[in-house]
Design a protein that fits this description.
The complex is a heterodimer of chains A (235) and B (153). Chain A is an all-alpha fold and 235 residues long. In chain A, 75% of the residues lie in helices and 0% in strands. In chain A, helix 5 runs parallel beside helix 9. Chain B is an alpha+beta fold and 153 residues long. Chain B has two domains: 35 residues; 104 residues, Immunoglobulin-like, CATH 2.60.40. In chain B, the strands form two sheets. In chain B, strands 3, 4, 7, 8 and 9 form a five-stranded antiparallel β-sheet that branches. In chain B, strands 1-2-6-5 form a four-stranded antiparallel β-sheet, with no helix packed on it. Classes of the chains: A mainly alpha (235), B alpha+beta (153). At the A-B interface, helix 2 and helix 3 of A face helix 1 of B.
């Protein structure tokens, strides 16, 4: 057995759970989801866009996740901050990403939108747009996969149930933007499946950045509602 | 995961939930105070086929004149500053001067029973928001027939 396989086994062992552990893991998922919902539905809108108020639930969630990793003896490598399975994750993601990109191009044409690969952050070079997207994607994928997916595996085990839970959580956090909900559910399923097979957050962040760029560039802004979510969607 | 770690995690989850509940409570109360005026006092005294009258005072800023808006059957009719002569308010120690009344002239409206509501407007968020607070209670009045003035419901 090679070192990568042994390491996978050790990581999987940390995902074994008893009934009490499963309940705790479910509560952990609910707690992080509630923090994000508070930030996007209550703090961001009711507090008049005050960054300090938005930062409170996000900081609480981040601090909680770090302590939870420590208490569960999870290493950065377990979470997916690693390079040894980089190629494996890339190969797993390649086909679904190409398919999604083609679907977006077709949908964009169908909606009558014009493909514009400078539309995401107008005025910023494409490489800058992708770099910004990578940072934001890494943060989202860490929460979604490094935390929620791992806890979902504790609750429901590895496989489709936990994958669907992760995708459902990810899409619910993008309500009430219907098209974004559909897109994030699709992305959530793909990324959760790949993470369970090859946990690599860097590859997922690159994929997240590229897919967001493709979606924003191909689908008309009126359909995506400028990627607005939460109460800001209505503003 | 050992029992002690589980216990720590449970306590942490409870603490986080409490902190978030306090945050939501603070944001909600703050939002209420920003978007409404807790010092607003006022009464809708009278409504008939010609006029709707009452008074409104901001006890937090007694010298200020409050902007009021009249709605009949839910439709905007007009707005004005509550700055009509009402010496009874100062006599009753509700205001520091005599100029906090309002009188709206009723425009031509179809015969039948109608409802008048007067709202005070409140600006917040550096003008980004404008909210309305009902003054007193809505009054019902009749156009045509006996043309009786309304009394609070």
């Amino acid at each position: 057995m090679n070192s990568v396989a042994k390491d996978e086994q050790r990581g999987d062992a940390r995902l074994m759970s008893d009934a009490g552990d499963r309940q705790l893991a479910a509560w952990e998922i609910a707690s992080i989801v509630s923090s994000v919902l508070i930030a996007e539905w209550i703090a961001a809108s009711v507090a008049g866009g005050s960054r300090l108020v938005v930062a409170i639930p996000i900081t609480l969630a981040l601090a909680f996740m770090i302590v939870s990793h420590r208490l569960r003896h999870e290493t950065l490598r377990d979470l997916g901050f690693r390079f040894d399975n980089f190629l494996q994750a890339v190969l797993l993601l390649l086909l679904p990403m190409v398919l999604v990109a083609v679907v977006c191009l077709v949908l964009g044409r169908w909606f009558g939108g014009q493909t514009n690969f400078q539309a995401w952050h107008a005025g910023t070079p494409i490489i800058g747009q992708l770099a910004l997207g990578f940072g934001w994607g890494l943060a989202q994928q860490y929460v979604l996969q490094g935390f929620i997916n791992r806890r979902a595996q504790l609750v429901l085990g590895k496989g489709w149930l936990s994958v669907l839970l992760v995708a459902a959580v990810f899409s619910a956090l993008h309500l009430p933007n219907v098209w974004l909900v559909v897109a994030t559910f699709t992305g959530g399923v793909i990324w959760a499946v790949v993470y369970q097979r090859a946990p690599n957050l860097f590859v997922l962040a690159v994929s997240h950045s590229l897919m967001t760029w493709v979606i924003v560039s191909t689908l008309p802004p009126s359909a995506l509602h400028h990627l607005r979510i939460g109460l800001k969607y209505f503003g | 995961m050992d029992t002690r770690s589980k216990s720590k995690l449970g306590h942490l989850l409870i603490a986080k939930s409490m902190a978030e509940a306090l945050l939501i409570a603070a944001v909600s109360v703050g939002f209420y105070f920003v978007t409404t005026n807790p010092y607003l006092r006022g009464v809708l005294d009278y409504a008939d086929n010609q006029t709707v009258a009452g008074w409104a005072v901001d006890e937090g800023q007694p010298a200020a004149r409050i902007e009021v808006q009249l709605y009949i059957d839910g439709i905007f009719v007009g707005d004005q500053a509550a700055a009509e002569f009402r010496p009874d308010l100062r006599a009753a120690k509700r205001a520091e001067d005599d100029w906090h009344g309002f009188v709206f002239r009723i425009p031509p409206i179809p015969p039948g029973e109608h409802e008048a509501r007067v709202y005070a407007t409140h600006v917040s968020g550096a003008g980004a928001r404008r909210t309305m607070q009902l003054i007193g209670k809505p009054l019902r009045f009749r156009i045509g027939g006996s043309d009786k003035g309304g009394a609070p419901r």
